[in-house]
């Protein structure tokens, strides 16, 4: 059963990598927030799987609960912060349009 | 018996996670991707967490029972938080004027 | 009364989260629960109208199985679309707006979350009584708000208004 959970965690990590593609590529910053939110939800499940493998689930479940709340707060805060930004429509905003970054 | 139930629940949850991720990668614009992210994540994490909670109910010790109840607590929290986060993200996009993607089947919206 | 109810809920939560039952930790839990209950007992129970609250809670519990069925259907729908090789031709996304007849805040929030969880639709925003909804196809857009609004009106006792 422990092997099974290990493979479950590995497949979940691969899925997180696929979601990371959307987070890195964008194209808008809202897509990035969404990708980070999806990765966070998967992380909650992954934390409990890790706890199951290590046999310390009563510790990891607290971490997972805190992580779920933190993920929710981060998503709300980031989307509120970017609500009225018109230039989130520019592709790659947040990568190339940093202050001091190269202009195009 | 309970182990096979765990395996069935986690595998189906993994399948829905996969479908969610494919939806995020393949859908054409941000609103449609939000459909995949908001809905798929709720059910798939529910299935996986249910499977893990059932696995920990196997041993009937007090600590494992508490762990199962806490996993259920995470589940309830995800159920409340996921639609709210979806609203927040999609409202941020709508407010900043991201135009929804349309295809050819709606000619009145073509330019 | 409300203070006691809040205290009991908070203390149950403490026991659930700590899982340690010796005297020291339980007394810490009593102190923390007293503090939280004193600070926030008037916020937990906003609706102090005894006549309807229990009925509403009971009807809401009966509503949950239907919502779970809708969640499963909508996830299958989205999964089918996401894995369909010809997906671009299958969808015709659009934003639709409609007016609701619901009055209470709780009823409107419930309707918004239910729309998000039903197949092919996501609530974008609510301004007063106008909902903006993003739908994945024309068919689901025309089905709005559908039987859901009537169900929620029944839960919160708003059928007569």
List the uncertain runs of chain C: none
Anisotropy-based shape of chain B: elongated
Give the radius of gyration of chain C: 21 Å
Termini separation of chain B: 59 Å
Structural class of chain C: mainly alpha
Mean pLDDT across every amino acid position of chain C: 79
Q: Main β-sheet of chain C, in a few words? A: 3 strands, antiparallel
- Please report the two chains with the greatest interface, counting residues with C-beta closer than 8 angstroms to the partner's C-beta: A-B, 45 and 46 residues
Strand order of the largest sheet of chain C: 1-3-2
Uncertain stretches of 5 or more adjacent residues of chain B: 106-111
Quaternary organisation: heterotrimer
Overall body shape of chain C: elongated
The number of E-state strands of chain C comes to 3
Which labels suit this protein?
heterotrimer; A: disordered C terminus; B: 111 residues; mainly alpha; 3 helices; elongated; disordered C terminus
Give structural notes.
The complex is a heterotrimer of chains A (104), B (111) and C (161). Chain A is mainly alpha-helical. Chain A has one domain. Helices cover 72% and strands 0% of the residues of chain A. Chain A has three helices and no strands. In chain A, helix 1 (2-25) runs antiparallel to helix 2 and helix 2 packs antiparallel against helix 3. With 111 residues, chain B is mainly alpha-helical. Chain B has one domain (2-97). Chain C has a three-stranded antiparallel β-sheet. Chain C folds into two domains: 2-44, no CATH class; 50-155, no CATH class. In chain C, helix 1 packs across helix 2 (23-44), helix 3 runs antiparallel to helix 7 and helix 5 (105-117) runs antiparallel to helix 7 (147-155). The two termini of chain C are 32 Å apart. Classes of the chains: A mainly alpha (104), B mainly alpha (111), C mainly alpha (161). Chains in contact: A-B, B-C.
